[in-house]
Amino acid sequence: MIEAQGLTKKYGAKTAVDGISFTVQPGKVTGFLGPNGAGKSTTMRMIVGLDRPTAGTVTVNGRPYAQHRSPLTEVGALLEAKAVHTGRSAKNHLRALAATHGIGDKRVNEVIDMTGLHDVSKRRVGGFSLGMGQRLGIAVALLGDPRTLILDEPVNGLDPEGVLWVRNLVKYLASEGRTVFLSSHLMSEMALTADHLVVIGRGRIITDGPVDQVIAAATRATVKVRSPQASQLAELLAAPDVTITSAEPGLLEVHGATSEAVGEVAAAGRIVLHELTPITGSLEEAYMSLTQDAVEYHSAAVPAGGHTSAGTDAAAPTHEENAR
Amino acid sequence: MSTTTVAPARAEVTRPTTTHKLSFGHLLKSEWIKFWSVRSTIWTLAITAVALVGFTVLLTLAMVNAPDDAGAPTNPLDAFGLNVYLGPLAVAVLGALSITGEYTTGMIRSSLTAEPRRTPVLWAKALVLFVVVFVVSAASIAVAALLQAAIFGGDGMTVDVYDSQTLRALTGYALYISMIGLLSFALGALMRHSAAAIATVLGALLILPIMFSAIPWEPLHKIMPFLPNVAGAQVTQTNDQIAAMAAAQPDVITLSAWAGFGVLAAYVVVVLAAAAVLLKRRDA
């Protein structure tokens, strides 16, 4: 259980985290989403006491992190993969951190095997790939068999097999009743892994809730309708909060109306329907719409013909104006 | 590499906290592992040992072969004299790196996450560094004395380790070198940057004394005995040598062996205290 109350961090004039309050519950995976610079890493660093909050408090399992007598068994944290002395072997890195809590080599060997580092454990960390460094960071987080896990971008740099492993691992740990708090930029991965979401932008909480509720609230319901009388149906459906687009003759995409409403209007107007499909939004769409005003570092629009997902290319310049 | 296996089911998560606990003893063990698991430790300690033994033997050789023009009796203890300047150099690098290495690599964040009260990490590191450097330099000085006696004993160049003053002076080299290592460590903890810390400590050890004696300005000469290594090196001298030194320069203060060492220790305490305060306050 992680509880933040009015947590604030200022660096000089810049406010990185602006009075956020949230609770991360045990027994489920809580995803922490937000654009670059939104304050995710700063928040995570404050949870484990690396950064001192300018105001507010954050506790883990009921106490500020620094007041725990065995911090590594309370919280396992992966904050940045390479918080490791590059000249030391992976095994010695783990042994040194384990020793601070009197954790023996048996557990060190366990986490080495769990994270698949067995073959490279005696190599110096300086030569590790991003993915290997990430696995070592996860091994460190697991060392104390902690009740709470905080993982900042855990799948960053991992191969597909590693991504799957992390997904299964965090779900399993949460199912054991542990608290799991993880950030990621991979929306599809987050949608598969998280049960609950905390979305942050410009240092403030944008939304906090179960994944399906967040998606439902942030995306407009879309209904795909195929009908030989499409134009007639479009006229009947016309309303102030309903927009209708048509990609090809006979096919409508209705935004702002439920499939039930569309079906009833069609029946009342004696219109033949060939297809009526409700389309739920994706987490990525929800994320984009939630954070569009909170994006700090905009990418330049991709020239026409370039393919990007979720229509960000068209939307980006407007966001830029909003942000200024 | 098989990583699809998930952790085996373990004890209930709401269990009372495990027997694993953070303690200063555990931190010492951790710092001991860290100390010996980077290459720079072995290199700097080896260089220190070779330098201490090598320069003592070389200087003895030079003294034995020097024309005895003054007619004064040569003191075999003088053969250890170069170690004041050349002994602590590699140790200074080791001391700084043992803490700045953690800052430049990011390791410090792992260390401080494991011990969020932070300052015990500093004390544990300092203790491991001091003890190891003391043991290595004391052993090297002992080997140097043995070699000196074995090679040049016939020329009368052998130190009398049963003389308490001689023993104090020889042990003083190990104390002095370890304390310089600690000074460098404290500067490293304060500056958090390898090159800056090493440059500062080497500047203070090598350049300041030369500057202070070369610039013809009286106050500098008065302050000179209080420079860290000038003061600290008094402990490597016998009381007779210190008395002779005082007689040779009557217009400046000559610190006694322990007073001098105390001045060096005071520098270390001040810098280390400042480093500890900043370690507590700064974001890591």
Please tell me about this protein's structure.
The complex is a heterodimer of chains A (about 325) and B (about 280). Chain A has about 325 residues and is α/β, with parallel strands linked by helices. Chain A folds into two domains: about 1-210, P-loop containing nucleotide triphosphate hydrolases (Rossmann fold); about 220-280, Alpha-Beta Plaits. Chain A is about 35% helix and about 25% strand. Chain A contains twelve helices and 13 strands. In chain A, strands 5-6-7-3-8-9 form a six-stranded mixed β-sheet, with helices on both faces. Chain A has a four-stranded antiparallel β-sheet with strand order 11-12-10-13, with helices on one face. A three-stranded antiparallel β-sheet of chain A has the order 2-1-4, covered by helices on one side. In chain A, helix 3 (about 90-100) crosses helix 4 (about 105-115), helix 4 (about 105-115) packs across helix 5 and helix 8 (about 210-220) packs across helix 11. The longest helix of chain A has 16 residues, at about 160-175. Chain A is elongated, with a radius of gyration of 24 Å. Chain A starts with a strand and ends with a helix. Chain B is about 70% helix and about 0% strand. Chain B has helices at about 25-35, 40-65, 85, 90-105, 105-115, 120-150, 165-190, 195-215, 220-225, 230, 240-250, 255-280. The model of chain B is unreliable at about 1-15 (pLDDT under 50). The radius of gyration of chain B is 23 Å and the shape is globular. Chain B starts with about 25 loop residues before the first helix and ends with a helix. Chain B has one domain (about 25-65, about 75-280). Chain B has about 280 residues and is mostly helical. The chains are: A alpha/beta (about 325), B mainly alpha (about 280). Chains A and B meet through helix 2, helix 3, helix 5 and helix 6 of A and helix 1, helix 4 and helix 5 of B.
